[in-house]
């Protein structure tokens, strides 16, 4: 057992559901107790989806516990097949079903005989893999299944496209700024005259999977999800892949150069150097910004970076090589990526932290007192407590990290966004610091703005007042005092407060 | 009080249906969110998996960052396969909790996983309690058996078995032993405790204590024959435990939600204690008058409850009294005995208001419900967040049902909060409608 208050990566089934719901016309059926379909809430709230999330539960209750699911799972699969007519039904095990050890594969086999949709059992073990690993595996599983199927019925597109083309593997919903990144990647490839063959799984239909092999190469923009699929395609279809993440000026250039090398090997005479140079110096603002006098202030400033492997590595490199910031610690909660993480980043930071314990991260930040933190929502809250500014650079995130406006992290526009994020974090820190030195311009004390001070608050009433959230407390205090004054009461008791509330004067 | 089963078959009475139970709701472990805040000296340990933890952390949002007094005992593979000893593991974690937080009581919340692997929490707790010197209460608030607010029911039922047992100690002479006392059960914010207590005080009734109280150490003493009364519609197990195990007398009444419910609740309690209630009608009338601005907007509007928190019947009854009509009351679980008073009032209210009787659908099927919503096109659907945005995109007003659980809704004055909640989606007049943008779902 582990005492845990917070976790960075979710349970395995979340990863599977993220893949399933990213495809079009795929329905996931969770073998889970009531209440485990919280994923639907997250997708509907965070991504503000207009469509019903195609996830239903085949509910595990007492009866199932006593007698097994029996026909229940099969019935549910058949029912969804009729109601929604999906291309694929993905049966998703949860922590509960993995200890029940029912033969879910058997249910899948039987259900697939009668349903139009294909039926698959997501092959993930709740106790061995987390959300991200599960997403990676499920994506590979689905791709593998449909490629094999296409090979069998000879519908596979094995001939390469005429012009250079690419598959983007891994972007899926509830990812950090994923939609904006996809748009930015599309733009980048358009500039390079490379066609995008497919983007899997976000927004793709199952039908598109058989087109995968016709692309010239694959890219995996996020290290955590898509790598297994890319490796599978490399092994079985001889497709090369690039797993460099194009976040930051230097890494984007690196990414483009790798594509250039690859295309040259495939017999294309391309030269992207001029494009890189032009974009870096004039189209994107961030390289010039790093050079500008403002950024001198950042030199030698300290930061701690923590998040998933992809974003932590990218941001650490930007801070260190593009902004001249000293990264005291760079860390990730993606334990399986440890080797890659260390290799990528050891040059750019003073220390490396691999943990999924947020308390440890908090303690280290408190000890080091960096001028800014770049991390997840948890680090943002750590920062709040310690009065250190924080820029959010990685999941897990809140709804405000699903912005409506265009906020890619990748490519040249992404580098602009990140430069703003970094710079704003540090200036805010500086401003705060100056304010403290000069006494500040805002006091949180509520007593200063009252109408009169002749009212006497009884301890009990005052305690009740303290319970009211800070942002409205001042207003309520004033209203109660006004109420007391009107009614000629010079002592505010709990009763007076309630009388005031009843008169509708609290707010 | 109880509805005669026979009278229900009549077409003038409420229809009860039961569907597949394929509906969306919160896991009952979510009760720790409000209970840890209510019981100030408690610590809640949820013994479950990452799935439980993920739900809590996401459902409770920012609360999680406020150093809450709850945590997960996250089960790992070695726990599941019994390679580790449950007792030793729990001892290790609880010792740590005691050292760091020094709570007056630790609640163990059992989950689906502890049920399936049959972890003997009830067996381990007393042993550990002795060793640590901290009371440990075990509540099985799992998704196999319960929905959302029923989590509170399991915790209070567990508490009901033991709290305030010593009736012979330190007689302060304040209470005479022969007159039965009144204990109210149900977790409500302290200001509601104060308010409802005051209402009863007006008629000379003293509430001896609340289950739960602000602190575990302040829980009231409970004797046999004492009267108990619930404030929340989802506390049927607690009620049963108090009646059967503690030999208390349950005052069955509608719940103090809405001015009508509050009046009926007070009236019922007063009638049990033989106290007249002069001025209570005026009190209710005044409360309704204060709501008039909302009522203007709400009259004639129709509501559909998809059902997820068991407050549905009380809310529907209140809404009908407000002049609305209710098509369907979805509800996870209905205890017709415990909710008997409420059901009777619902029926009475419908007749009084001249509106049709709603269908009550236990264990609803969300998919079927969505089809019915499509046909009926109600003015307001009260539903979980999983369906709210997709319904809005289809031009249907929604209110997120969970907000009723986290708002102050009891008593005369808080009725306003309830109506405020449901008025918002109906009031939200934007110019989009005039521009013809109602549908955000299909391309036209």
If you had to describe this structure to a student in words, what would you say it looks like?
With 507 residues, chain A is an alpha/beta fold. Chain A has four domains: 12-131, Nitrogenase molybdenum iron protein domain (Rossmann fold, 3-Layer(aba) Sandwich); 165-282, Nitrogenase molybdenum iron protein domain (Rossmann fold, 3-Layer(aba) Sandwich), CATH 3.40.50.1980; 288-438, Rossmann fold (3-Layer(aba) Sandwich); 456-503, Helicase, Ruva Protein, domain 3. Chain A contains 20 helices and 16 strands. In chain A, β10 (302-307), α13 (309-322) and β11 form a beta-alpha-beta unit. In chain B, β13, α16 and β14 (398-400) form a beta-alpha-beta unit. Chain B has 444 residues and is α/β, with parallel strands linked by helices. In chain B, strands 1-12-11-10-13-14 form a six-stranded parallel sheet, sandwiched between helices. Chain B: [4Fe-4S] cluster binds at residues 27, 52, 112.
Oligomer: heterodimer
Under the CATH scheme, which architecture of the largest domain in chain A would be assigned? 3-Layer(aba) Sandwich
Q: Supply the number of helical segments of chain B.
A: 18
Average pLDDT for all residues of chain A: 90
- The value of Rg of chain B in angstroms is 23 Å
Strand content of chain A: 5-15%
Strand order of the largest sheet of chain A: 12-11-10-13-14
* Total beta-strand segments of chain B: 14
Total DSSP helices of chain A: 20
- Number of domains in the coordinates of chain B? 3
State the share of residues found in helices of chain A, binned by percent.
Answer: 40-55%
Q: Which architecture of the largest domain in chain B would the CATH scheme give at its second level? A: 3-Layer(aba) Sandwich
By helix and strand content of chain B, what is the structural category?
A: alpha/beta
Strand content of chain B: 5-15%
Helix content of chain B: 40-55%
Mean pLDDT of chain B: 90
